[in-house]
Target: Ig-like domain-containing protein
Amino acid sequence: MHRYLKEWLTREIDKSNSTEVVLKSLELSSSGTYRCEVSAEAPSFQTVFQDRDMITVEEIPWITGLQNEYNVGETVNANCTSSKMEIHAQLVWYINNEKANSTFEQGPYYKKYFAGSGQLVTTVLGLNFTVTDGHYKIGEIYLKCAARLSTHYLLYSDEKIIRFTKRPPTESIISNQVKQAKMQENSISVQNTPNIIHM
Model:
C-alpha cells in the first residue's frame, strides 16, 4: 500500500523543502509505505523514486508499577507498554543504560483492539529483578524501555530514576559494625603495647 499526498494528508509548507516533506495531522491509519518521486525536466523527464515504510504511533512507550525508592534485596516489578499501533512492537528494557538480562523480562503480552476494518495492538513487557549493590554503583538506578518499530527506528520511554530508601542495606550495617570492631581492637592493642627504651 503506497501513500500519496491526498486530501487527508497535510504538508507543513514552512518546514518542507526540496529534500524533505514534513506531514502533520497524521492518524494511526496513516501508517503504510510512502514513496518519494523526483522527476527531471524536459527533455529526459526521467523519474526516480524510493519507498520507505512509516509507522505512526500515538505516544512513546510508558513505564508503570515502580516505586520511587528501593532497598537492596527488594524486588522491582514494572511494566513497559507500547501505544496502540498496527504492528507488534518489540520492547526492550534497559537498566543503567545496559540491556536488561532476558531472565528479568516477563512476556511480551499483547492486547488487541478493533478499529474500523483493521486491528490495533498494544504490547506489554514486564520487568522483575532483585536489587543488588551492583545496581547502585552510581547511587541511583536508571530504567527505561524502548519500542523497536523497524530496523531503523527505536522509540524510547522517559527515563525513570530509582533511589535508595533512607534505611541503609543490611549488608552495609554489618560491614560498618565489623569495621568499627576492628578499629577498637587496633586501638586497644596499641594502648597495651609496652614502651621500649633503647640504651
The chain has two domains: 2-54, 62-164.
